[in-house]
Amino acid sequence: MLRLLLLLLSVVASVLAAPCTPCDVLPEEQKSALSIVLAALNTNIDTECSRLVCSSSGLESWTASSSLSGTLSPAIGSLSSLTYLRFSSVISGLLPTELGQLTSLSYLNLGVWSITGAIPTEIGQLSRLTFFEILSNNDGTIPTEFGQLTSLNSLSISAFSVLGDIPTELGRLSLLRSLGLSTGITGAIPTEIGQLSSLLNLYLPASSISGPLPTQLGLLTKLTRFLLHSSSSSLDGTIPTEVGNILSMQSFSLTSSYMTGSIPTQLGQWSGLTDLELKLASADGVIPTHLGQLTMLDQLSITSNTISGTIPTQLGIGTLAYLSLIMPEIEGTLPTQMGQMTSLTFLFLNLPSITGIIPTEVGQLTLLNQIHIKEPNQLTGECWPFPAGAGTVSVGVAFKCGCNSPTPLKSCIPPQDCETPNTAAADKCIACVDGADLTNEDECEDRNGCTANGGDVAACGNVANSVCTDVGLNLRTCECSLGSTGILPQNFTDDSNTFSGECYDADGCTLNGGQIAGCGNISNTLCANNGPNNRTCQCAPGYQGIPVTTLADDDNTISGVCEDVDGCTVNGGDVKACGNIANSVNVLLVIKEFQ
């Protein structure tokens, strides 16, 4: 048996060590270029073999391993037969302009985090390209040459440095179906956007778009999904009524603190709409009754500080599963038609000016399992009309349900559902909301969502170098730890753990401005990145005065002076410092500041 096991192990070892036979057919020029490219990424053809598709014509496809690191060599330009190229690994340095020589390329995904510098304009020469995506810390702008990529179906650029305005030349991409630009986009949406006649998806999250929104958006008659979240105070104006012409719209999400005007009634023409999110702090007018025509609506969320009036009775839409209304100026009462929302599972109301009682019809919503009514409010009632089996319940109403007075973390269960209502056993009528636990004193305390899920890394999907922060009731945030980058902060409820991706070590020297700036702007210093949230500073060769100092990525408190070292004395004096040549003397002292 042992002999058989040893034989199997030797066979497996020989297979793992076998050369990449399929790529033996590569022309010598391409094999040589591929070897150079892989060497710069600290790997080789045999190791990367399973991710390469080779033929006698050349390398056709490469889905790079996520474990690669290093730089992308200019030799990649010699792999001219490539049609598919995808990276998801930590590659650093500049993107080579030679990418523009891959004229057979139809798919290019550079979804990496450490690429720096501008996006090469030469990529605009890839006339066969149908898909382009990059996710990194590039700087510069979106090349206007991208307007030449007339075969492009999908364009996605996410960067953490300034990208500037959206080039008007992108209006030439008549075949474009999906456009995603985020983090660094500034300026107005160009009117040429209306020429993208094939566009289905337009995503502009985390941008600094300014306004107003062009009326030409109404020309995108095939658009199904629109998302614009802008933090810029320059995104002003109103929602163009022309967007009501996009009858194909299925999902519409708009966030701006400075846009004004009312919600267009034309939105009621989107008969296929399933998701509508409007976070418009400065919008005014009323909630349009025309929204009641959206009979396919699944999620509705409206936030505004200045929208007034009442809640339209027409919002009693049977398909609605998620409803969130945050509007301090809305008055009147909660309509009884809420009982018609038979698909409702989540209800969030922050309506401090609403009066009256919670309609008993809400108790008919058997699917409703999360109810949040924020304080302060003017609602009253003799008993909370819970649906049977409701899960998360957070109310701020002075109910008399045979139990102790509710608190923000506690709710009352109706007397008929208590084992001994109106008695000393009042604890049997208390339920804690999701994210809170009942103590021995019959009080509800906020649960630490991070600790409950195993601590920082475990609570963040076991993503290395991640950190978890409990930020309130039933809510925690996961993000990359200090000194790491790769995933934007994400919020989760205490019972959710879908955080995924990778957090890569950030170059602490680069984050602090480079060698000199990363060492407190002390001349003649060397900065070295040593891992997550760790860098060292010391005097450059030929200088002394500051010992090797370890710093966190956000620490730049090093001080002192690096002075020129007497090279003659350090090397033993005149004769030793001159190679032990008798009768020699060092007569020239050169001081050069380290840059």
Please characterize this protein's 3D structure:
With 595 residues, the chain is mainly β. The chain contains eight helices and 36 strands. The strands form nine sheets. It has a 17-stranded mixed beta sheet that branches.
Provide keyphrases for this structure.
about 600 residues; mainly beta; 17-stranded mixed sheet; 3-stranded parallel sheet; 8 helices; disordered C terminus
Concise structural overview:
The protein has 595 residues and is mostly beta strands. 9% of the residues lie in helices and 26% in strands.
Helix-strand blueprint:
Blueprint: H1 2-16, H2 28-40, H3 45-48, E1 52-55, E2 58-63, E3 69-71, E4 84-87, E5 90-94, E6 107-110, E7 114-116, E8 131-136, E9 154-159, E10 178-182, E11 186-188, E12 201-210, E13 225-230, E14 251-256, E15 275-280, E16 299-303, E17 322-326, E18 346-350, E19 355-357, E20 370-373, E21 378-380, E22 392-394, E23 410-412, E24 430-432, E25 436-438, E26 444-446, H4 449-452, H5 456-459, E27 466-472, E28 475-480, E29 484-485, E30 490-492, E31 504-505, H6 508-511, E32 525-531, E33 534-539, E34 543-544, E35 549-551, E36 563-564, H7 567-570, H8 574-577
Parallel strand pairs: 2-4, 3-5, 4-6, 5-7, 6-8, 8-9, 9-10, 10-12, 11-12, 12-13, 13-14, 14-15, 15-16, 16-17, 17-18, 18-20, 19-21, 20-22
Antiparallel strand pairs: 1-2, 23-24, 25-26, 27-28, 28-30, 29-31, 32-33, 33-35, 34-36
